[in-house]
Amino acid sequence: MERKLCFPLFAVLLFVMLNSAQAQTIESYSEVGGTLILTPPFSGAITSILWKHDGNLVVELVGNEVDYYGKFRGMATLDTTTGRLEIKNMNKIYAGWYTVEINNQVQSQEYNVELIKKVPKPEVAFKPLACSPALLNCTMTCDGDTSEAGPVTYSWREGDGDWIPGEKDRDIKNDEETKKVKTFSCQMKNPVSEEESEPQDNPFFQLIPESSAG
Fold this sequence. Notes:
Shape: elongated
Largest sheet: 7 strands, mixed
């Protein structure tokens, strides 16, 4: 008798695990005063939509009627043909967890909305500060206050070259290749902004004289 009960229990656990695995969390970001846009990946005819924020009603479409609730009145706009939700003048009260039901079906994508600041204009700084041709190597850092700026990515540029993705810190060696680079620049980027530094002189740069002919 006990062995017969095991199969239904296993089937229920498997069903729960599969449904959990299908849910996809999308990290979404907005700046203070900005506009948040959440677009569910749904195609087809839509007869009903229900958005929720932290479990509370945001907006509901039933038939041709659209109802907005609470703090979202006058702030949110629903596209009834795509299910897209737009919230203007974002602030902290609108951050949190968003879910959507379309045609009475909970959609697989859920949205974790976070409010972040723009990145600052960075500066290229050297470690040690007295980086000079007498040293074998130095470390450059893309310096700037990124607190509350969310996920920040960094890129570096040599002279007028292309931006190359990298880390906040970059090591340079006093070798022949580095000596050819006149300036270094760095770039900060997050989901709501990007800024780049002014070019910084390369302390290892050497002007190589043209060899005389004959």
